[in-house]
Specification:
The structure is a homodimer. Chain A is mainly alpha-helical and about 180 residues long. Chain A has a domain of about 70 residues: Arc Repressor Mutant, subunit A (Orthogonal Bundle), CATH 1.10.10.10. Chain A has a two-stranded antiparallel sheet with strand order 1-2. In chain A, a hairpin with a 7-residue loop joins strand 1 and strand 2. Chains A and B meet through helix 1, helix 2, helix 3, helix 6 and helix 7 of A and helix 1, helix 2, helix 3, helix 6 and helix 7 of B. The first copy, chain A, binds a DNA duplex (30 and 30 nucleotides) through helix 5.
DNA sequence: AACAGGTGTTTTACCTGTAAAAGATAGCTG
DNA sequence: CAGCTATCTTTTACAGGTAAAACACCTGTT
């Protein structure tokens, strides 16, 4: 039970999180460690997936946040303001400013000022920008498909569904809880 | 369908990820967006949960990485070297060094050199360190329980199980895929 | 018209993480 | 035992994010 070297054992106890949970149980018996089994795993999956995920992006010299920004422009299909991009990519305005600076220098996006309201800028993909997104996306998705293929199709569907429910609820209520 | 303001609609389409997927489908019809529905959601859930999760920690003036480090010491129950801590918390050695510096200054951990091998250090919790972990952990878990309660018990179990399977596979194979 | 307050964006100062190199030490090998 | 290589940890240089302040500009009010 006390997994000697940190090596994994069977199905439900095969990840590092369950080993951590076992350790906590030994130190604080009876502790309700239920949340860890979800939150701990979500965090760890996110970390591992991002690491793996970045491989195809790196080849194009893009970080994931940069790709997210370009992707937002591509999938909406129209110009977005820096503020829109911040909302769309869930990052701060300041972060968007910095990324836009670099992406503009690399010629992947262009900006123009609004004619009516001179505070706002409109950002759009250049041809090079659109090409790079369209080139990477399929590779990216293929790579992700390969990574996820460790789970059979049915489980992938279940997982996607459950995560969607959780995320929908969190997005709706988190503001409420935080207040 | 094109959700006007970014507001969510029904059950399976209620999160931002499904809105993003719909946008991609409109631009690249037929694209296999399956992976996004898992990976995108995992990433976004992780981001939201961490944000929410930190609330009880902040009251104790700890960041999550700091708490993870202290937690590793607490749950293993014995001294760990910086290298052990890096492995245990999935962070780089350099990051551990920095965190240890701060935690030592705050009197939450102590270090002593190894007598045999003078390269290695051994880190342990001080009484104050142990108390802070034991004080926060229940609050932390209670908070997480509340956040997750948007999902009923059965779904939480299913989700934990699926994530465990995925994580177990990823931890086992990711090294292999990366090679 | 002047201004008060609000909004969109950028700047500043700072904090934390990383990769790569440096530093220090162990332990094998000829 | 001198030297080589491997290991553990820290340092350095730097990239990238954030919060808060600063800017620039709009808009409704008086």
């Amino acid at each position: 039970m006390t997994a000697p070297n940190g090596r994994q054992a069977d199905a439900t106890g095969g990840d590092t999180v369950s080993a951590v949970v076992r350790q906590w149980q030994a130190v604080h018996p009876g502790l309700d460690t239920g949340p860890m089994e979800i939150i701990g795993r979500v965090n760890r999956c996110a970390a591992l997936l991002q690491q793996a995920e970045d491989a195809p992006l790196r080849r194009a010299g893009l970080s994931r946040p940069e790709f997210d920004l370009l992707g937002a422009l591509r999938r909406t299909g129209h110009e977005l303001t820096p503020g829109d991009l911040a909302r769309e990519t869930f990052s701060s305005g300041a972060a968007v400013t910095k990324r836009l600076k670099q992406l503009t220098e690399r010629g992947l996006v262009e900006r123009r000022g609004d004619t009516r309201d001179r505070r706002v800028a409109h950002v759009r993909l250049t041809d090079a920008g659109r090409e790079i997104v369209d080139g990477i996306l399929p590779e990216q998705l293929a790579y992700e498909t390969a990574v996820l293929s460790v789970l059979d199709q049915r489980r992938q569907g279940e997982l996607a569904g459950l995560l969607g429910e959780l995320l929908g609820q969190l997005e709706g209520r988190l503001g409420a809880l935080r207040a």
